[in-house]
Amino acid sequence: MPESIGEIELKKKEALEKKIWKPMFDSIFSGLDPDLESEILKRIDENSQITIDNLKDLMRDMKRSKNRKDQTEELLKSGTVKQKEIMKDKNIESIEASKLLNIENEKSWFISKTFAYKQTKDERWDIIETPLDVADIKENDKIKVDFGKNNSANYRIWAWDLLPTNVKVVKIKDQNWNERVWVRSIWTKSSWITKVGYYDKWWYIPVFSGYTIEIPSLEEQEKIISDLSKDVELSTDENKEKEVKTASIQDTIKDEEREEKIRKFTIEENKPYMENAKSLALQIEKVYWIPWQVTVWQSSLESWWGRSWLSAKFNNYFWIKSFWKWNSVSLATNEYENWNKITIKDGFRVYSDMKESFIDYAKFLTHNPRYFEAFKYWYNLDEKPSYYPSDYIWYDPEKFIDKIAKAWYATDPSYASNVINTWKKFDWLEKNVA
Question: Within 13 Å, how many C-alpha atoms sit on residue 94's CB side?
């Protein structure tokens, strides 16, 4: 005789309670929105192998997604006229970073409440997250950053956009828990950049989804400020900060316009790899000032002339790795540790088409401070982002790629010569083989 619906539901509940013991189950669902609870139970039904950690991560993701929508609805209901106009008909998962920064200029701290979460622990040591209230930031606080699916925000909004001026020192940990210490400053030591940010003696750090910001104790902050005082000048002028941040929004707008120019450029998917690679590289050179040869050399080496599985199936022509929640595929890859080659499995980004891969490569280089030295080897154009080097030397694609390699684009110690030799081999074939 078929089981009744009630009997089936009871069996599901019993099976669930055997897999994750009841107190833990109750703590996960305590106070949860009914719609979120229903969605999580649906995911449990779809995946019988789900673990308690999977459940916790899923619940956090769904709560963060709901928070982003809630903050948007609240802004549309009670924000200023300007804020409402900016957000009108916009999706929080895709709105441009420049628009978000203009909203933030209205002093609502909308960005902080939407993309940053203060983390605490309950009596069971489970992590509890609440949208960041900048008025309540204290020493030893831990703040998790999550921009959701908004790649524009992920690339262009940084720690100083999330934190108020009174937060002078931060520790920032990436997804692998590598940690660096930074002091809030307006960078004026070189003509490369004038930005409000968190700096150490070398540069600033961008903050991506999955990064954790920690506020050191006051005693530790004083020591860090003292240790870095020779290299980094502590920012104390709020008016100057406001002036510089307003100007930096214009840089963000120009950066978005550059990306859109490439996106509007048409390529024919049925053309040979090299034709499309070169045409895209020339367009990228015009708006991002990456020598076109470098783009073609790297994509040719990394994708094996467009024939690798990662490029042919997943449109990743540069073997750029994924992080956090980026749409990705797991593949075996060779890395180097202490000059020894090892094979590991890692996640690599998945793109909708070839053009998106090339755009992301250009953004990857231009938004990562460690690669900025390479831009000395490009033309001294008048129109350029304020954070690009002003002390240009000459146009030299080979030195450009050498600087990228030395900034650890890849772990292979021979990476620069491999890239250059790839192009020289192709150049020879093109000239000598009919």
Answer: 4
